Amino acid sequence: MSDARTDGTQPMERLTHGGLPPIPEPPESCSPAHVGIAVDVGTTTVVVSVWAAGTRAMLATAAEQNRQARFGSDVISRIAFATAGDGLSVLHGTIVVQLESLFARVLRTAQAAMPRGISPAVTGIVLTGNTAMLSLLCGVPVTGLAAAPFTPASLFDLTTCWGDIRSGTVGGGRGTKNSPAVHTASVIDGGTPVYVPPCVGAFVGADTVCAMLAAGFPVPGECPAAVPQLLADIGTNSEIALYVPDTPRLSSRILCTAAAAGPAFEAANISCGMGAADGAIDFVSFADGSLCCRVIGGGNPRGICGSGVVSAVAALREGGWIDQSGAMQEGFVVRDDGMRAVPLAPAVYLSQQDVRNVQLAKAAVRTGLQYMLAQSPSIPTLSLAGAFGTNLPLDAATGIGLIPPELADRTVPVGNAALAGAAALLFSPLLRQKCTSLARKSYQINLAAVPDFQARFLDALAL
Q1: Buried b (16+ CB within 10 A) or exposed e, 30-41
Q2: What is the mean pLDDT of residues 136-142?
Q3: In the sheet that 121-129 helps form, which strands lie side by side, from edge to edge?
Q4: Which residues touch 459 (CB under 8 Å, ≥6 apart)?
Q5: Cβ atoms within 10 A of the Cβ of 66, count?
Q6: CB-hemisphere CA count at 13 Å for 34?
Q7: Taking a C-beta distance cutoff of 8 angstroms, is the pair 386, 235 a contact?
């Protein structure tokens, strides 16, 4: 089977900085101070975790909204910003400064979990994310991602050091001299080895490859499996992968695609949207003719998070507040701006535009899932990855058509699989080799080029 990519790119040669070797398997007697850091740079959320090298135990974790969001809520808008003026330098500096802050925070927490008198010593870092986010983090130009044929400057699968990440000189990066990151102190030694896993193509990144690793995807042609596996990391840039086992006509393969869902599932473009924190409505149900809201922390609601938004739309549809087209029919108020909205709690509501945003997001993901189902010889299992997928109420998701009904009882939430995969790569060269093989034997599909894509997408808008 050829390793050529469907987007015209070729797998990068494994790069090293200054002859740095991959992080070795730590010996049994390694210092209790040695730790590794795994990072998942999501379009909306950045997550960092610290792991003990000797015990492989997680010592601390922290998450924040990606600070690049003020320059664009989605990948496309950030690419556009990065290709104008000093945009690349600004976005690179923004994420590096944010990571420095998160590193300092998690290392303080990790030290509290370590034996008295021992301070964490970082021996390695693994950075994962989609192709665009990794490019911006490493200072790699994203001009090739701005227009067809969407050829990334780098597919990564390289070992470098933290100093080069900070300066933006990784994998062909020209450096970001104007970046504020260059002029700030770092809690990480500049020579610390950093591994950046491989991407499949322009819109299927290292986060998907890491998630495949964590979900137990076999390498086609090396580890045969009889059952198809489907993986979906649903978020702003939803990525979907399908392992197809051997059939009488075709050998095993992995098909990947991406669905531009936008930030609705993370409540970033929802009127009263907020993260899944205390005060967020995380579940809405319809019972006895009224809506019932569950609030994280049990206090007064301050907003609504992604899982709450999906369940709210399902409850509004069940109760007749909205029809199949998503139009509000009853129980709404008209706001000062003329927008219809259904009150969920005092000062928390779901507007007509919020419902439309959810419809667009769910249609993008549903179209991708349906396409993958059509390529599978039998109904696969579905691993739902990411914070949103883990907390997604499946009844509500199938109720609004986000999850195809045939997958409803074959779906398993797997948490932040991208971060779990990145953490596994901290300590295992063999798993790094498997990641490389998974990426090389995965084929990227451009959904927009699929025949009748527009018709499929429009059909998927219905609730």
Answers
A1: beebbbbbbbbb
A2: 94
A3: 58-65, 45-52, 34-41, 121-129, 193-198, 156-161
A4: none
A5: 23
A6: 18
A7: yes
* pLDDT at site 100: 95
Q: Count other C-beta atoms under 10 Å from residue 186's C-beta.
A: 16
Ranges of beta strands (E only) in 118-192 are 121-129, 156-161
Strands 45-52 and 58-65, bridge-based pairing: antiparallel
**Statement: residue 81 has pLDDT above 80:** yes
**H or E segment and range at residue 39:** strand 34-41
Report the 10 Å Cβ neighbour count for 322. Answer: 25
Show the tokens assigned to 356.
Answer: 């439309």
Provide CB contacts within 8 A for 306, sequence distance 6+: 264, 265, 266, 267, 273, 276, 388, 391
Report yes or no: 62 and 109 within 8 Å, Cβ to Cβ: yes
Q: Are 315 and 287 in contact (CB under 8 A)?
A: no
Whether 182 shows a pLDDT value over 80: the answer reads: no
* pLDDT for residue 70 is more than 60: yes
Mean of pLDDT values over 106-119? 92
Token digits for 115? 């034996």
Quick one: pLDDT band at residue 175, thresholds 50, 70, 90? Answer: low
For residue 36, give the nearest of 20, 48, 19, 21 by alpha carbon: 48
**Is 90 exceeded by the pLDDT of residue 74?**
no
pTM of the model: 0.88
Q: Position 313: which residue type?
A: V
Strand partners, 60: 50
Is residue 453 packed enough to be buried (19+ CB in 10 Å), middle (13-18) or exposed (0-12)? middle
In DSSP terms, which residues pair with 456 in a beta bridge?
none
DSSP character string of 274-334: --SSTTEEEEEEEETTEEEEEETTSS---EE-HHHHHHHHHHHHHHTSB-TT--B-SS-EE
The span from the CA of 214 to the CA of 66, in Å, is 23
Residue 149: Cβ within 10 Å count: 10
Return the closest-CA partner of residue 331 out of 348, 314, 339, 319: 319
Distance of alpha carbon 22 from alpha carbon 15, whole angstroms: 11
Q: CA-CA distance, 268 to 32, in Å (whole number)?
A: 40
Asked which of 76-80, 97-101, 185-189, 439-443 is least confident by mean pLDDT, the reply is 185-189
Token pair of 135 as six digits: 């490019």
Residue-level pLDDT at 433: 96
Q: What are phi and psi of 8, to 5 degrees?
A: 90, -5
Stretch 210-224: mean pLDDT = 91
